[in-house]
Amino acid sequence: MSTVLKKTRTLIDTRMHYCPGCSHGIVHRLIGEVIDEFDLREQTVGIAPVGCSVLLDAYLDIDAVQAAHGRAPAVGTGVKRALPENLVFTYQGDGDLVSIGMSEMVHAAARGEKITIIFINNTNYGMTGGQMAPTTLEKQVTTTTPLGREPEQAGYPIQVPELLYSLQGAKYLSRVSVHNPKNINKAKKSIEKAFKVQMEGLGFSLVEVLSICPTNWRMDPVQSIKWLEENMIEAYPLGELKTVEGVS
Question: What domains are there in the chain, each with its CATH number?
Answer without folding.
Answer: 24-242 (3.40.50.970)
